[in-house]
Amino acid sequence: MTKYHRRGDATQAVRRTLALAGLLLWMLWGGLTGDRVMAQERKGERLKVGLVLGGGGAKGAAHIGALKIIEKSGIPIDYIAGTSIGSIVGGLYACGYRADDMIEVFKKQDWLGLLTDRDAKRQHTLLSEDDDGVVYILGFPVSRKGTSKANPSRGAFRGDRIQDLLDSMIVRKVPAACDQQFDFSQLPIPFKCVAFDTKNRQEYVFNEGRLSTAMRASMAIPMAYKAVTVDGMELADGGMVNNLPVDVVRAMGADVVIAIDLSQHKHGEEDDCFWVFDNDSYLGLFDGIDIDGLLGWVLTRPDLDKYHENCKHCDVYINPDLDDYTAAHFRGKDIKDMVIRGYKAAKKQRKALKKLKKRL
Q: C-alpha dihedral over 118, 122, 127, 128, to 10 degrees?
């Protein structure tokens, strides 16, 4: 009995020591960050502003509404980090597109066809196949001949059309960003985006390469999209590990952070993590997917600790009310309403934005 108590006491002592060490490190990090910010303010140097755009599928329309208010505030953006749909909006914004430009893009797209690679010419044909061996059902690509079912990068959709759209937009603003070796720090606004390395089950942050590939990888929702292969890694949706990458933009050099968070449930319910398409009958949906690994992630949600920690380190936090929308609401009227909701949510933070502007 005595030994049991001693062992318990020792365990408690170790836990207290680790907790104290963690607290001291956190205070030191915060103190150093604060000292750096105050030093810059004393020197008259402008603080560097980081913009963080979280993931959430169609709810990314709210990012655009919020960006309109940020633009009106006159606050310059020095760095951008995004995840999933936040990587798409953030990447385009980093290229030079502004809120009004992207509102038109969101409104005009046939999102069902775009996101599912649907071939409009085949939509009235029950079953067809193209010259590359891709099999279509009512225009939706469902399989490709010669693809192994053991291929871990297999998904219901290839994402070709969305990447083509991104390339066509990127090349208009920054042609060099379509090169395989492009450095994202050379964009008009330096940019990074987050993906999930499915083989090693860890975060991967893009800072170079073909910009559209990085954006496409960051939004590759497991079971919906084929993962993107980069340097032997199979990269999927960054929301699996870091859905609000405040830490990424801080590491880029941001002194202050404006974050737009699309999450509605702070405990990580599934509608903040996956796109649930209205038609879930696509063939081959689970082919080649590491179901055990995915289930383990759903049960343990290792991303939540980082998410909550990142929320604490925002200077201006914008969280639009989108609770009655899912990540799959790409219909025109829904897009319009979510843009408005993002605008209203950012408008509620005008005092915080004005206060931040005075510090710059």
A: -100
